[in-house]
Design goal:
Layout lengths: L22 H28 L7 H23 L15 H10 L2 H13 L5 E8 L4 E8 L10 E7 L6 H4 L3 H8 L5 H9 L2
Antiparallel strand pairs: 1-2, 1-3
Helix pairs in contact: 1-2, 3-4
Length: about 200
């Protein structure tokens, strides 16, 4: 049986991230933009199935698939590393992630400042991400251009922040810095910690 990607449900209600992300912003981001990457990835899979054995521009197909499946995966991670304020979102990290942040960045405030600057410096469409390198046992900040470029091989991504305009424009217009500030109020540190502990 053919298997395709499907749009995951949000782990909270559309209005629960307000005032940091409005219901309207979340609906457009999840139901339109994330859904478009799901559809795009599935269309490429269908095309691959239909053109099996035929001459095709695999470079173009692969790049398009990478963009769409990257959008699917990163958005799926993004929704899960957010939590409503009344369900524990924001605040200070605890556990292994807190120790790793202090060890690698000096303090949580220094980490927030560094990660926010990283997000602010994303040019055009992309993501800020926090990854963990098993070899060096370090947290590594990275930028991901679009959805599929500049991902460091073998590193485990444990937190992502969408820097595409579609993530914030309804709520914050061109003031993306305010969206990045709001992000810290709804980070689900339990989920980020769980991802790190499961490596």
């Amino acid at each position: 049986m053919e298997k395709f990607y499907s749009l995951p449900s949000l782990p909270y209600g559309y209005g629960e991230l307000a005032p940091y992300i409005s219901e309207e912003q979340l609906r457009v981001h999840h139901d339109k933009h994330h859904a478009a990457y799901v559809s795009g990835a599935n269309l490429i899979l269908e095309k691959m199935d239909k053109t099996r054995g035929e001459e095709a521009d695999l470079k173009c197909v692969s790049r398009t698939f990478g963009f769409n499946v990257g959008g699917f995966v990163l958005h799926s991670m993004f929704w899960k590393n957010l939590a409503p304020k009344h369900k524990g979102g924001g605040g200070q990290p605890e556990g292994k992630i807190a120790e790793a942040i202090d060890g690698n960045f000096g303090s949580f405030n220094d980490f927030k400042a560094d990660f926010t600057r990283l997000a602010m410096s994303v040019e055009g469409s992309g993501w800020a991400a926090l990854a963990y390198c098993e070899m060096t046992q370090r947290l590594i900040p990275m930028q991901i251009e679009k959805h599929n470029m500049n991902i460091y091989p073998t590193l485990h991504i444990i937190m992502v922040l969408d820097a595409f305009e579609h993530a914030y424009y309804i709520d914050y217009k061109n003031e993306k810095a305010k969206f990045f500030e709001a992000f810290w109020e709804i980070v689900d540190w339990e989920e980020v910690n769980r991802r790190l502990e499961n490596i």
